[in-house]
Amino acid sequence: MLAPTPHAPAARAALCPVLEARQLTLDYEGERGPVRAVEGVDFTLEEGERLVLLGPSGCGKSSILKAAAGFLKPSSGAVLLNGRPVIGPGPDRIVVFQEFDQLLPWKSVLDNVAFPLRVAGKLSVAAAREKAAAALARVGLTRALDQFPHTLSGGMKQRAAIARALAMEPAVLLMDEPFAALDALTRLQMQRDLLDIAQERALTLLFVTHAIDEAVLLGTRLHLLSAHPGRTLARFETAGFDAADIGTQRFEKAVQEVHATLFGATERGR
Amino acid sequence: MSEVLHRLPDERTADAPAALPPPRNRLARLFRSLAFRRLIVLAFLALGWEIAARWQANPLMLPSFGETFQAFVTASRDEGLLLAAAGSLAVLLKGYVIAILIGFALVSLAVSNSFVRDAVQTVAAMFNPLPAIALLPLALLWFGLGEKSLLFVLVNAVIWPFALAALQGFEAVPETLRLVGRNYGLTGPAYVRHILVPAALPSLISGLRVGWAFAWRTLIAAELVFGVSSSSGGLGWFIFRARNELFTDRVFAGLATVILIGLLVEAVAFRGLESATVRRWGALR
Description:
The complex is a heterodimer.
Chain A: E1 19-30, E2 33-45, E3 50-54, H1 61-69, E4 76-81, E5 84-85, E6 95-96, H2 109-119, H3 125-138, H4 154-168, E7 173-176, H5 184-201, E8 205-209, H6 212-218, E9 221-226, E10 231-237, H7 249-269
Parallel strand pairs in A: 3-8, 3-9, 6-7, 7-8
Antiparallel strand pairs in A: 1-2, 1-4, 4-5, 9-10
Chain B: H1 26-32, H2 34-56, H3 65-79, H4 81-112, H5 114-127, H6 136-143, H7 147-171, H8 175-183, H9 188-199, H10 201-225, H11 235-244, H12 248-276
C-alpha cells in the first residue's frame, strides 16, 4: 500500500530543497552530562511538501523541529534553509506550538496575528491588521477578532496560532503537535481544515506528531523515528490521502503498515 | 452507519424555554463594587472609633472621630496640613521615580546577563531586610540635613523590593512565550519591551505597589526626625510638632491623612492600572 522511498535521499535536481537536515545530531544537557536526543538524521523538504516527523515520545522529533526553528544548536550536522545553515530563530520559520499559551495574552486575537507582521514583516499598522483579519477569516475566527486569548477555547487558540503563521507566509511552517492537547472532535475538525488550507496554499510544512492517523492524513511524506536516541527508521510516501479517505480500507491499511513499522522496530530493539 | 446504530427519535421537552434569570438587582450590584465595600468598612471603623473615644472620654489621649475631623478642617485651613502633605508627596514621587528607573535598568541588565542577575539578587537580598530608615543617620552624615538625605533613604527603600519582584516576574515568563518572541526575531531591548515586560506585568505592578508602601512609610518616619525643607515641614513633621504641643486631635488628623493618601493611591493608581491591563488580559482575576 505504501511505497517506502529509498533510504538515502536520491540526488535531486539542482534546485536545493527549502529545508534540509544533514546528518543532524542533537544533544541536550541532562543531569549527568549531555544526553543524545537525535543521531544522524537526514531529510529534505521541497517546496509545497508536507513532511511529518513521526515517532514515540523520546524519539527527538520535537528537538528536530526546535533545531529547524533555530532554538537548538546541532552538536554535529546541520539544518539548511534554502541551502544556508540555520544559525538562529527567525520569522521565515514560524512555529505553531502545542501549548495553548502561545498567544500573547496582552493582545487581542487580531493584534496577536498583526504583531509579528509589524515587527518582523515591517508592515504598517493598517496593512498588518488587514492581512491579519484575512488570515483569521480563513481559519474561521472572524467573530473573535477583538477578544483576548483567555476568553477563547483551546481549539480557537490553536486556530489563531495557525492564522498567525499563515499571515506571515513563512518559507516553511513548523508545527509541533499542534492538536495534541485538543479533544478528539475538535482535533478531527482541525486536521481537515489544516489539510484544506495546506492544499489550497501549497504550504511547505514540517509537522511533528505521535498520532499515526494524523500523520498519514496530513503528510505528503512520513519520516519515522525510533527512540533513545532518535534515528531514522523508515520513510513513506503518503501524498494520496485526504479527508474523504478516513475510515476507508486503503487508509486503515496504511495506518496499520506504519504502526507495524514503528512497533516492529521497538520489539526488535529489545 | 445506520446498519449498526439504531437512531432514536428526537426528544423534546414539552414546556417553553426556561425563563431568563431576572435582571440583577441594582442594589446587589452596588454591594458587589469594591469602592462601596471599602466605604462600608471605613464607616464601621469611624463608628467604632467614635464609640471608643466617647467611652474613654479623654480627648488628650484619644480624640473622637468628630473632633479629629474638625481638627483636619482647621489644620488644613490654618496650619497648612494639606501643604505639608503636598510637600511630602512631591519628595516621595521624586524618590519613587528615581528608584523605579534605576531598578528597572538594573533588572533589564540582569535579564540579559546571568552574572548581573546573580549580583542584583545578592545585593537585593542584603539590603531588602535592612529597614531603609536605619540608613538615615548615615545619610545625614553624608548629605546633611535636607532633601538629598531623604531621597537617598527613599531610593533605598523602593529599589530592592521592586528589583526582587521584577526579577521574579521576568524569570516566571513561560517558556512558550519566550520562544514565540524569539521566533519573531526579537532580541535585546525589543524582546524585553514586547515580550518580557508585558508577560511579567503582574509581578511588576505588585513590585510597584510594595515599593510605594515602603516609600510612603519610610518618608513619614524620616520626616518625624526632621522636616522636608525649611518652607514646608512635611506630614511626618506636622505629626511630630502636633504631638509636642499636645494637639492630639491634630496628630490623628495627620495620621488619617497618611492613611487616606495611601488608600487613594492604591485604589485609583494601582487598581486602575491593574484593571486596564492584567485583569483585562485574564492574568489576574
